[in-house]
Amino acid sequence: MSDRKLYINGEFCSSSTGDTFANINPATGATNGIVHEAKAGDVDRAVQAAKAALNGPWGTMPQAERLKLLAAAADGIRRRFDDFLAAEIQDTGKPVSWASKIDIPRGAANLQLFADLTRNIPNESYVSDTPDGGKALNYAVRQPLGVVGVICPWNLPLLLMTWKVGPALAAGNTVVVKPSEETPSTATLLAEVMDEIGMPAGVYNVVHGFGPNSAGQALVQHPDVAAITFTGASATGQRIMADASPTLKPLSFELGGKNPAIVFADADFDAAVAGTVRSAFSNCGQVCLCSERVYVERPIFDRFVAALKQGAEALKYGPPIDESTGIGPLISKQHRDKVVSYYELARAEGATIVTGGGVPSLGEEWDAGSWVEPTILTGLGDDARCVREEIFGPVCHVAPFDREDEVIRRANDTEYGLCAAVWTSDLQRGHRIAAAMDCGLVWLNSWFLRDLRTPFGGTGASGIGREGGIHSVNFYSELKNVCVKL
Ligand code: NAD
Q1: What is the pTM of this model?
Q2: How far does the centroid of ligand 1 lie from the alpha carbon of residue 38, in Å?
Q3: Are residues 306 and 346 in the same domain?
Q4: pLDDT digit string (tens) for 106-151?
């Protein structure tokens, strides 16, 4: 049984109130172990430790040494790859084929990227004329923000946490991480790595717990937390923004999506089908970038729906550690109830269920897990709730379209704006549509290809700000201009 403690000031500890909660394996419903729940007092201790490290060993450490430690943390994840993989699979039930290629390698790569990138950030400087006919030199200095609160979701736990911790530490901040209550383990393992590599106490702290009236809210409201970086649901973002307002702190928000995929009749048909099977059903549809709305040009609509059905039905349920398993469970029974309620709503709204629409019977221990069938819907109008609201499960609605201007309008008709996937062999049209999409990322003839230096983020209800490369560093540092009369 695992015992996920808090990590405060370089020490693993229980909560001051002694509160714990269960960590459940969503593939089997079995209890993995217990998690210690931080309350406001524990969060305060973590913030004070982070502040002390900032004013002490971390703040005075040469930047080259800090980046060496960050690179050592990346190495630590690689060295303990199997531990991280097992922990992530136990917490999420995700198939090993996905976690071993995406979650854990990206965890290490995220830290490595910022250890490398921040060695070479140029400084801005200008020599300007002054009113008295002289000159002045202006130069901008980058400073850390201070203690950064890092609040993470459960769908890509290590990947999304390191995506924030990497640049925050590289920019000279210290962090207090609040992992999702569903997935506490890899943040705790990273604490073990930090211990092993000799990271100074207080630089990286972990406070487990929930959101409202628990560790999450306490972190957001803490006056000594200089900034909050948050990935999660849009409604949670609204709440965090309200709770953060009295202490006026910068917020970086990566939120929900209801992303379109647009398939033209001239697309490479097989590539578009395979790409849409991935973009709709990867990680059991629990990726913010998943396509939940698919628009297909009418001449190929029936053939496309039939091929997508075949692709969805070929995804194999099975033990997460089995390499041939193609789809895992949802994160929890509660989330499954939500997704299944959308399947019921789709029926009530008049959808045709092309495939799926229920809960599979897998037998033995697996039936106690949170499994759900990959589901394809057709026949709904653009105003149906299933076409407008983020479901965050293995489900997409497929609709026909006739004209380019029509599909652009329908794809953009959403409060969200995270990403879009466009499938066409007409490159000019591809670029034209990319320009017209009201969102933060567009993939042409692909999905989920990521260069970590590129800007990542959404518009509207999908987020505020950009992460990735220098864009992350810009959020996690403050620029101060110094003007010198020459
Ligand atoms: P969530 O918003 O329920 O929880 C995310 C985190 O916020 C958890 O750690 C939770 O404990 C914490 N939290 C909840 N309420 C809080 C509060 N009032 N104050 C402080 N912290 C609080 O999201 P989730 O269910 O874990 O994740 C799924 C959502 O995340 C989906 O909407 C998905 O689209 C989104 N997501 C977005 C991106 C992106 O990059 N845009 C990436 C992954 C997931």
Answers
A1: 0.97
A2: 18
A3: yes
A4: 999 999 999 999 998 999 999 999 999 999 999 999 999 999 999 9
| Same domain as 243, residue 121 | yes
| Residues 245 and 312 both lie in one domain | no
Q: 288 near 254, Cβ under 8 Å?
A: yes
* CA 180 – CA 355 distance, rounded (Å): 31
The whole-angstrom separation of Cα 235 and Cα 196 is 38
CATH of the domain at 228: 3.40.605.10
Same domain, 473 and 445: no
Q: Tell me if 148 is assigned to some domain.
A: yes
> Residue 375 belongs to a domain with what CATH number?
3.40.309.10
Q: Which residues have C-beta atoms less than 6 Å from ligand 1?
A: 151-155, 160, 178, 180-181, 210-212, 216-217, 220, 231-233, 236, 239-240, 254-257, 288, 390, 392, 418, 458, 462-463
Confirm whether 226 is domain-assigned: yes
In terms of residue numbers, what domain contains 150? Answer: 2-255+462-485
Domain-embedded: residue 457: no
Burial of 363 (0-12, 13-18, 19+ CB in 10 A): exposed
Q: Which of 110, 151, 220 to mutate for ligand 1's pocket (most ligand atoms within 8 Å of CB)? A: 151
Same domain, 219 and 266: no
Residue 288 annotated among the catalytic residues of the structure:
yes
Residue type, 452: L
218 lies in the same domain as 238: yes
Task: Report CA(74)–ligand 1 centroid distance (Å).
Answer: 25
Based on the fold, state whether residues 310 and 343 are members of the same structural domain. yes
Q: How far is residue 226's CA from residue 245's CA, in Å, rounded to a whole number? A: 12
| Chain segment 156-174, per-residue pLDDT in tens | 999 999 999 999 999 999 9
Same domain, 251 and 287: no
Look at residue 208 and tell me if it is in a domain. Answer: yes
Tokens of 140: 């901008």
| Number of structural domains the chain divides into | 2
pLDDT at 108: 98
What's the pLDDT tens digit per position in 181-212? 999 999 999 999 999 999 999 999 999 999 99
Reported as a pLDDT band with limits 50, 70 and 90, residue 365 is confident
**Ligand 1 pocket: which of 288, 342, 370 to mutate (most atoms within 8 A of CB):** 288
